[in-house]
Specification:
homodimer; alpha/beta; Rossmann fold; 2 domains; six-stranded parallel beta sheet; 9 helices; 46% helix
Chain lengths: 213, 213
């Protein structure tokens, strides 16, 4: 018992922790370094953010910020959303040389209740998306809430996939919205499902500027 | 059979679809409107983005964009990350009047392998975070990768929680990083778990500018 107590003096314990920590981190570094070594291919990636949780669109707009930081040009098309002027729209309109921003207008589909008009709007928005998807100068294309337009079959999924496939090799695309169709997930490189663990809305807290819009 | 065929002329079918669509959307609108009616409380929210999937930090930076669009001031502290200059850092440093940006330096913890130095850096970063968390002029505080610092016990969780609780009433905070501690999830308003469905890295595609950094 006495020996154990002696070994547990603060200095020795701190040394132990540091040694263990160092060993653990060295192992981790070796694994991470090897993974990085293996992942060397540079190519445009297709990302899909889906699920019911918060963070799908905001994550795409965080990528816009990264892209702008690296001097890339960005194209944004917002499907479905658009009646309300959002923070991201207000902000990005400050950089017309770097970001082309197109909001489809009309707001959420359950506000309009007019399928035909929604389909026309969606078709126009996809025309804009195609202009971005054929322009190699644009490094990142955000197709915000595209999954909703696909879910309601406002757009033809196979045509959308064909246009995504035909884009410039180094162009990144981020698609957001609940209920991403399986065929889109299939052709995507990175797919994240945002899952709700809890949401302030359920506690009676309003959607607020800077958080939800 | 003939009657059925007659009823399935394109015009009638389109009308049916539109009627069904309208009814479904009207129901949805009623539910959404009622929820919005109930969720009226305005207050600063604490958001936690956790899980192994992509989108935790980028979603926080998307919120930064929203906040800036609404004229709010923003404070960012990056824990753990920082050796590499990221796109978000380069971009946000263009707006020194609107964004205060502090990167902890030193890179990921498995690069340094020095627990004591990491703890000192984390403590300094938390001092900066506390300056933001006591400043009512700052509408949004991003504590990027704080969960990693908590996981390695570089910071005292109960102190962190106390400081978060004591912040100005209308201030929003976004905390990111894998493995958010249960006590933090407990006090958060909105928690999203980013789940990996697939990741380009596993297919040998490198982490790239505008996507991962």
């Amino acid at each position: 018992m006495q020996e154990q107590n002696a070994a547990a003096t603060p200095e020795v314990a701190a040394d132990d922790i540091q040694t263990r920590h160092q060993r653990r981190m060295a192992r981790k570094k070796a694994i991470v370094d090897e993974k990085i070594q293996q992942a060397q291919r540079l190519t445009g990636v297709l990302l899909v953010h889906t699920g019911n949780g918060k963070g799908k669109s905001s994550s795409a707009f965080g990528m816009v910020m990264r892209a702008l930081g690296h001097g890339m040009k960005v194209g944004v098309v917002q499907f479905i959303k658009g009646a309300m002027s959002t923070g991201e729209e207000k902000f990005l309109r400050r950089f017309p040389d770097e970001v082309q921003f197109h909001a489809m207008g009309e707001g959420y589909t359950w506000e309009t209740q007019n399928r035909e008009r929604d389909m026309e709007k969606a078709a126009l928005a996809w025309e804009q998306a195609k202009r971005f998807l054929t322009d190699p100068e644009i490094g990142l294309v955000v197709l915000d809430e595209l999954n909703i337009a696909l879910k309601y079959q406002y757009l033809d999924l196979q045509q959308v996939i064909a246009d995504l496939d035909a884009r410039p090799e180094m162009q990144h695309v981020a698609v957001t919205g609940r209920g991403a169709p399986p065929d889109l997930i299939e052709i995507a490189d990175t797919v994240t499902e945002m899952q709700v663990i809890k949401h302030a809305f359920k506690e009676g807290i309003a959607a607020q500027a800077g958080v939800e819009w």
